[in-house]
Amino acid sequence: MKNKAEIYILIVEDEAGVLSAIVRDMEYFEEQFPIEMTESVEEARDVVKNILDHNGQLGLVICDHILPGTHGADFLVELQNDEKTAKAMNVLLTGQAGLDETIKAINEGGLKHFIAKPWDKDELINISIKLLTDYVIQNENDLLPYMKLLDQERIAAELHKGSRLSDR
Amino acid sequence: MSGSIVGLSPFKFAGLCVGIVGFLLCLILPIPGLYFAGKVTLGIFVMAAVFWMTEPVPIFATSMLVIFLQVLFLSAQGPLFQNSTLPTYTPIHLDGNEWRIANEAITEEGIIIILENGRQMPVLVDSYYSENGQVVVNSNSLNDGLQIVADVSHRRAAYQPNSYTDFFGTLANPIIILFLGGFMLAAAAVKYSLDKNITRYLLQPFGERPLPILFGLMLITAILSAFMSNTATTAMMMTVIIPITAQLKSEDLFKTALALSIPVAANIGGIATPIGTPPNAIALAAMTKSGAFVSFTDWMMMATPLVVIVLFISWLLLYKLFPPLAEKINMNSQGGFLINPKAITLYVLFAITVLLWITENLHGISSNIVAFLPISGFVLVGILDKDDIRSLPWEVLWLVAGGISLGISMGSSGLAEWMINSIPFGSFGLITVIVMFSITALMMSNFLSNTVTATLLMPLAISLVTSGALGTDFSLIILGLVISISCSLAMVLPISTPPNAIAMSTGLISTPDMARSGIIIGLIGIMIVISYALIYWPLFI
Fold first, then answer.
1. Which string of DSSP letters, residue by residue, matches A89-140?
2. Most buried of B80, B132, B156, B491 (most Cβ within 10 A)?
3. What's the DSSP call for residue A6?
């Protein structure tokens, strides 16, 4: 029986081939973080609603910019403006976002990182590790379950200076 | 899925139910040999033990509940005792040693409670028989005019209620203040990176080869955890070893040795000083209350030689079990001590405090008093601020206070004595008793909190020693050390201690690896504890 709210990774990418490539690269996290893949913002909204309804939380969004219907940057702004998803970390993974959209994603969508296509697998994983580490340190009380996959040194340092764990 | 109603797992929910039912049963059922207060205390003991084992609520919350229940049900000012007076009765002299008393004045076992200068003395009569709804007893302990308790089932029977201040006061017990001083030192050291800088500095002489580096890491971890919490020390040392493990090949077993060495050394290091780890506080408080005084210096002289040996053996063991492939390890020892007025004041106060603690026997100023130097000093100088004080591990102090408080009632209600009497310790001999307490503590604290284990066992040790079953020469200090040190030697499972949990979370260790080293170190450790208890510690008594 799981009492803890699981932390989800959401990937939004309209090209099926690219989507499965991202998911394959992100497999590393699956052991601890369930990964949801969606092909449009409309679909992503449903998935986010479903995650929240089932007591889950949105930890990381990796989003393409050019999508059918709503664009990625606008979706990030949407998430940022909803208090239930505002804490989620986000990455804009795109080849085609112009300066204006990028600025909007940064200023209004709280964009944490921008990766240009084609991406490098290690870069994607390292950025995701950093952002998820930020997320759990900021939002989770018990950090131990996340230590194995995320930045161990930073989590250990946080356990050291924080008062989350003590002798018992 | 009844458990989901309160959001607990079925195991914890069962623990919650069993604890509450156990409490009520102890109150309701007749328990031979226990008077009312003893039954209440047994109820609290059972509920606390079940809650501490199954953790439907955090362990410190159980400790707070213990204090609350004691104040409510066992204190002189609580609703049960504030207006109650002990019913007394003067036995009627019949003939020779024969006296007539009321039916309710004698227990089924034939015990009457004689009042002597306001104190209640349970006495076993030689014989008794019923006559016309009254009881005739034969006892040479009775005299003309002597009063006895008229109703042995009365709540005050064989119990002089403690003042509620006794229970509340545990949070200001001098040992708690000593720990608070330790917490302040640790918090300041962490805030100013003193511990990490000391580590970097002290690691330098250990060079680049795996064997000495492993020893250096373990030695420094043990030294730091003797003065800081084992958990905080482990977390800090993990930040040191994680970059080292990253340079080793994935098949190099030495990664496991490194990751295991830290919790092992932290658990062992906590033994070295009174403030090293909370079970020490439970043992010290119990010893002090029973008049067996142990100074900071005494404790270190008795415990540190043991720490050194166990640490040394653990070092060789880990090296043997997980030998390195790498011949050279790059140690990044960059960074330097902070140099600013506050940091320097911290270094000075830190050094003075530790020095005064260690040398308590030379100057005679209690370490509990010295503890107030960092407590007041750090806030006066602004080394620690309001937020730093708020984030001290207060729950640990509550946990220890609850343990001390439970011990008070176990003594004063006669519960601990009753428990001890139900096992014929007197016939076992000293060695058997020491082995039993040591192994029990080791086994329990592998699954339970070390502090809780000490809390449950210490009151029994006190009663056993004061009962004289082990001989009048035997000191509580020895049994206290056996219990608290055996608790710290439990490191078989990730749940055994928070340092183990941290190390396991890195993914560098498998559970069987931890179990294997933990079992060997635990067994060797208690063998050393037992031999110290028989040979070395008696030299100090």
1. EEEEEES---HHHHHHHHHTT---EEEESSPPHHHHHHHHHHHHHHHHHHH-
2. B491
3. P
Residue B172, by phi and psi: left (phi above 0), alpha (psi -120 to 50) or beta? alpha
What pLDDT score does B536 carry?
95
Residue B193 sits at the chain A interface (C-beta within 8 Å): no
User: Encoding tokens for residue B323?
Assistant: 């030998």
Structure token pair of residue B20: 């509450």
pTM over 0.95: no
Q: What is the pLDDT of residues B85-111, one digit of tens each?
A: 899 889 998 888 889 998 889 988 889
Q: How many CB atoms lie within 10 A of CB A100?
A: 9
Complex ipTM:
0.87
Amino acid at residue number A42:
E
Q: Which residues of A touch B506 (CB under 8 A)?
A: 147-148, 152
Q: Of all residues in chain B, what percent carry a pLDDT higher than 90?
A: 75
For chain B, the average pLDDT equals 93
The pLDDT of residue B1:
40
- Burial classification of residue A66, based on how many CB atoms lie within 10 Å of its CB (0-12 exposed, 13-18 middle, 19 or more buried): middle
Contacts of A75 (CB under 8 A, 6+ apart): A12, A41, A44, A45, A61, A63, A67
Q: Does residue B329 belong to the interface with chain A, where contact is any CB pair within 8 Å?
A: no
pLDDT reading at B4 higher than 60: no
Q: Is B460 helix (H, G, I), strand (E, B) or coil?
A: helix
Q: Do B505 and A147 touch (CB under 8 A)?
A: yes
Per-residue tokens: A79: 């998430």
Does the beta carbon of B221 lie under 8 angstroms from any beta carbon of chain A?
no
Query: Each residue of A17-52: pLDDT tens digit?
Result: 999 999 999 999 999 999 999 999 999 999 999 999
Rounded CA gap, B409 and B166, in Å? Answer: 10
Q: Nearest 5°: CA angle at A157, between A155 and A158?
A: 65
Identify the bridge partners of residue A115 per DSSP, sorted by sequence position.
A93
Q: Which two tokens stand for residue B419?
A: 């428990």
